Amino acid sequence: MLQPGDKKALAILGAVIVAALVIIAGATTLLVRGHEKPLPTVAFQAGDDLTQASTPLWCSATMTDCKFARANGDVSPIVADHAVAIGDQAVISVPKEVADGPWALIAEYATKQGTQRVQYLHMPNEMFTQVLRSEPDRVLLGIEVSAISAVMEQVPGQPESTDGDLAIRGVFAVRTLPVGFQIPNMTELPGVKG
User: Fold this and answer.
1) Which DSSP symbol is given to 135?
2) Which run of H or of E encompasses 52?
3) I need a surface site. Which of 78, 81, 101, 181 has the fewest CB within 10 A?
4) Strand, coil or helix: what is 15?
């Protein structure tokens, strides 16, 4: 039979064990909750520098699960700055989360005739890296990578059809304007496919 002193010691030991379990469970919950997978980024390298371009919003391929980069849900573009000198090349690398689906890269160039957008479309798992050059007669001004979803957005006010646009899962942008460069002609030329 237990003595009153033994009962008191066991009660204290039991309370300490319960408190320790509560602390461990609480700490585990905080650690797991605080370590959600970060949103994907696109790597942009030119010269000796590397920039990670972020997206304000990242969604699943079916657009059913979306996560915001900003706590307030702001989806305005996040544009990274990374100057690319004339004569240099830029290397754009997308992560697996982007390359697992179709993705588009739009590069904007300044020429003597005006500015022109060149669009490159990549199918799933076809390409993870794209190289672009900035030349004296075709200066790279910026790039935009769009991850394309499997969801068709209908044209407002039109009956449901196959006409529409595919929804964008995330957009990553980098301004590459060379330091001190002045765009010679702001005329917008028709876009072309790369």
Assistant:
1) B
2) strand 49-53
3) 81
4) helix
